[in-house]
Amino acid sequence: MGRTVQALCHDIRYLADELAAGSTSPDEKRLAHLSTCCNTLLELLGTSSVPEVFRPSSDDISLSQHERMLLCEHDVIWHWQAQDDALTLSSRWETLYHDNVKPLLLAQWCQKLHPEDRDRVQALCHQAAAIHGLSKIEFRLLDGLGQWRFVRLRMISHDQAGEPGLTGVLSDITHERYRDPVTGLGNSSLLDQLLEDAIGDAPGARHALVKITLVNATLLSESEHFNNTRELEIRIAELLAELLPAGRLMALPDFSYALVTPFHDQKAMARLVEPIQQMLSLPLETHTGRVWLSHVVGVVPFESGSSDDVKALRKQARLTITNASGAGVGGIHYYTDELQTQAARARRGEQLIRAALACDGVLCFLQPIVSVSEGGRVVAFEALMRLRDGEEGIAMPGAFIEAAESTGLIHQLSQQLIDKALHILVDPAFTQRFGRDFVININLSRHQLKDAMLVDDMMRLIHKHGADPRRVNLEITESAVLAEPAVALRNLVRLREHGISIALDDFGSGYSSLSQLCELPLDCIKIDRRFVMDLEREPRKRHVMTSVIDLCRRLEFRVVIEGVEESATLKTVCDMGAEQIQGFIYARPMSSKDVLGRLNATLLPVSLQPASL
C-alpha cells in the first residue's frame, strides 16, 4: 500500500481547504491530486479490512506521530454512490460515533443529523455529485451515546463506469466548534444546542439551566498566585468536571460555567449543587499559598415546549447571576419574572437619565417647609429631583434613582439639581415673594457623601451663584453615613465649617438613629413620615413622637415633621410642640414656576386655602 490512510486523509483535508479558500477557478493540478487521493481511499474502502491505524510512514508529509494519530483517529472514509443511493463508511465510524457501519441509504444516514441540517446536507450531496469538483459541508450529528458532534465533510465527485458519486473524508471537529480550547469543556455553542434539545423535548418535561459564576476569579487570576488566567481556568474546570456529568458542563466567558439538567424541584436542585458549593468553598493550593473562590449559582427552570427560546433562557440566566452577585456570594438563586421587570426599569431609568443630562432635562421641583409658630410662613423649600420624560411627561424618582445610583450618574444629576436649586436662592422673584432668609434643602446620596470632592464642588457652585452658604441645608440619611462613616463625617464637618447646615433625613427609619444624634454634626432633624401615619390613632406613636420632639429641642436641633397630609395629624403634631411642617397639607412638590404662580409667603392648610390653589 503506497500511502497510509492517515496521509491520504491529511492530503484530502489540506487540498480541499486550500482549494475552497482559493479563487473561483480551481487549480486543476491540485484538483487532480485530490481526485487521486479520493480514488485511493475508495479502493481501500473496497478491501475486506481497512488498516486505519498505522505507525507514521516515511512519505513526503512532514507530520509528528501525535499529529498522524490524531488525523487517523478523527477521520472516517465516506463514499456515496448516487445511482443506487448507497452510502459506505469505514469502520472508524463505529469507533468514533458508536454506530454500526452497515450499508445505508443517504437519506437514512441523514436522519442521524440535526433536523436543521438534514435537508441541506442531502441536497448538497446530490448537487455535488452532478458537478465535477470538490465540496465541503459542516453539520451536526447525534452519535450513538446521545451526544451532539460537529463534523466537516470534504469530498470530491467522480464518475466511475458511468456511476456518479462522492468520495471523501468525514472529520470530527467537535472540539473546534463545541469545545472551549482552554478547558476542553463544552462552549457556548454546545450550551445553545443542549438548550434547544431541552426546549424540543416532550411537552411538559421540566429542565433547568444552571449557571455558576466565580465572582472573584478574574482578580485572583491576575494575582501572584497564578501565572496567567489560563492556569486558573484549567484548575477550576478540572474540579467542576469531577462533580458534574461528563460532557454536560460548559465553560463560558468570565469564569462562568453552565449545565442543562432535568429539573424536579428546588430540593433536588440543592442536592445537585451542594457538592459543587462544598468544593468551591475549599481553598485552592497554589505555589504561593492558599486562595478561596467566591461563587454564585443561578437557576432558570423551564418546560419543554414553552415560549422561551435559547436566547431568552440565556438572558434569564444572566439576570439571575447579576441579581445573585448583588445579593452576596453563595446560595442558589432562582429566576423570577420580577428580575425582568427590574432590568427593564433599570434600562429605562438609565435612558431617562442620559436623555435628561443631554437635553437639560433635570428639573428642580420644590416643596415648601412651613413654620406653624410663625403663622404658616414658608421658611424653606426642599429641592426634589424630577426628569423630563418626552415632550411633556415628568419622571418621578422611583423611575430613575436606582439606576442613577448603580451607574454613578447620580453625581451628574445632583450637580445639575444643586445648580438649579442654588439659583432659587438668588432669584429676584423668589426673594421678592419669600424674603431673603428662606433656606434651600438639598438631598445628598451615599455616593456624594463619600466623595472626596463634595465640599469643593458644593462651594464652587455656591460661589458661582453668589449665594449665602448659611441658607443651604443638606439632607443626609443614616444609611448614607454608614456606607463610609469616616469619609462622611469628615465631609460633614468641613461643610459646617463653611456655614452650611446639615439635616438628618428620615429620622426613625434606621436602627441607630439615636446614636447618630450624638455623633454627627447636625442642625436639623426631619422625622420620617412613617412616624406620622395614623399618629392620632396610635397612642404608642404619639408617645414616641413627643419624646423625640422634646429630645431634639433639648439638643437644640430644629425639627421638621414630614408627610403631614391631614388636618387631624397637623393638630396632633402641633399640640406636641412641632414648629416646622412639610407635607401635602400645605403643598405638593411643584416647579419653581408653579411655586411663584400659586404660593404665597404664608400658607394655610389645604382645607383652608382658596379653591384657586
TrEMBL record:
Source superkingdom: Bacteria
Domain EAL positions: 346-603
Signal peptide: none
Database matches in InterPro entries: Cyclic-di-GMP_PDE-like, EAL_dom, EAL_sf, PAS, PAS-like_dom_sf, Rev_trsase/Diguanyl_cyclase
UniProt-listed SUPFAM superfamilies: EAL domain-like, PYP-like sensor domain (PAS domain)
Pfam families to which the protein is assigned, alphabetical: EAL
TM helices/strands, residue ranges: none
GO MF annotation list: cyclic-guanylate-specific phosphodiesterase activity
Protein name: Phytochrome-like protein cph2
